Amino acid sequence: MSSTSETPASSSVSPGRPRRRWLRRLLWTGLGFAVLLVIGSVYQAVSAAADARDFPPPGKMVDVGGHRLHLNCTGEGHPTVVLESGASTMSSGWAWVQSEVAKTTRVCSYDRAGTAWSEPSQGPHDAAHVAAQLHTLLVNAGESGPFVLVGHSLGGLFVRVYADRYPGEAAGMVLLDASHPDQLERLPESVRKQFEAGIKVMAVAPVLVHVGLVRATGLFDQMGRGLPERAFAEVSAFGSTVRPLEAAHAEMRAWADTTAQVRASRELGEMPLLVVSAGSAMSPAAADFLPGFQALHRELASLSSRGQFRLIPEANHLSLVTDESHARQTSAAILDVVRQVRATRMSGAASP
After folding, report:
1. Residue 53 domain-assigned?
2. Does residue 40 register a pLDDT over 50?
3. Is residue 22 part of a domain?
4. Residue 203 domain-assigned?
5. Which domain holds residue 249?
6. Each residue of 271-325: pLDDT tens digit?
7. Are 292 and 192 in contact (CB under 8 A)?
8. What is the reported pLDDT for 28?
9. Which of 71, 102, 148, 186 has the smallest number of CB atoms closer than 10 Å to its CB?
């Protein structure tokens, strides 16, 4: 029986063909990704230009020596209240509070260097430099003290250094769910890890902004949710731009310098002081840390012999200023200190 030799079928696939198909798919995927990046970048640039046109600064731009900061003052009366925002927030975030406080006295919100309408600064972003720029801003704008200083979150550290560096300008203070200089050391290690993770997010966020992802997803919209429509639109617009994120990142990287400056600052003597603490957590995970934060806030009240502590049970860290009802309670706390300052000045004037 003769044997026959078999030849490969003519339909056999060349070993190089799957590799070529894989390379083509990779090429088309990369090309599609590049196109999406270009579209996202164009979307971001066009939207940012529209925001600049649609949202002019509500206040005035004031030169502080090489760059200008945005200052928005409303209302009449003394003492003037100065509002210092937390990290990653802006003057528009005080919309509910400012409109309420302005019914009773003069009140000023502003944007730190690089935030919202304010121009960036080449200097450090620690508390000492923030305080110096705020001092120059108020002087150059013609705003006269002494002031009631209100600091929310990180802003609480800034106003404490301001009161230490310019004691004659601080008549009263309100600390709203304020940062404590020792919180990373005294609270559970997970708080430090969250803080460090937040710094890493801020470091990469500008890249996501450049390609339009932050704007398209509304990643930071929660910072203004609950505010009046116009204020929310402003917070959302500026939260989708690079410069404020870079400024917030610089402020958080300056944490060690800022907290050292706060620890070195003097106590507040007999200054009217009200420490307001949020009674609700922003997330289930944050609920575990709430008692610890509230204990630190109670400590802060001892900075002054006239210090008081107040809990707003239903409010969380952000809603103290963004929720209309909670902001009304925050405003009431601020005005309580305003009245104490007025009473102190009247009793001093009446003394022989």
Report:
1. no
2. no
3. no
4. yes
5. 60-350
6. 999 999 999 998 888 898 999 999 999 999 999 999 999 999 999 999 999 999 9
7. no
8. 55
9. 186
Pick 68 or 288 by higher pLDDT: 68
Buried-state track 20-41, b at ≥16 Cβ within 10 A, e below 16: eeeeeeeeeeeeeeeeeeeebe
> What's the pTM value of the predicted model, to 2 decimals?
0.85
H, E, C per residue of the chain: CCCCCCCCCCCCCCCHHHHHHHHHHHHHHHHHHHHHHHHHHHHHHHHHHHHHHHCCCCCEEEECCCCEEEEEEECCCCCEEEEECCCCCCHHHHHHHHHHHCCCCCEEEEECCCCCCCCCCCCCCCHHHHHHHHHHHHHHHCCCCCEEEEEECCHHHHHHHHHHHCHHHEEEEEEECCCCCCHHHHCCHHHHHHHHHHHHHHHHHHHHHHCCHHHHHCCCHHHCCCCCHHHHHHHHHHCCCHHHHHHHHHHHHCHHHHHHHHHCCCCCECCCEEEEEECCCCCHHHHCCHHHHHHHHHHHHHHECCEEEEEECCCCCCHHHHCHHHHHHHHHHHHHHHHHHHHHHHHHHHCC
CB 268 within 8 A of CB 167: no
Q: How far apart are the first and last CA of the chain?
A: 135
CATH number for 326:
3.40.50.1820
Does a structural domain hold residue 14? Answer: no
Number of structural domains, the chain? 1
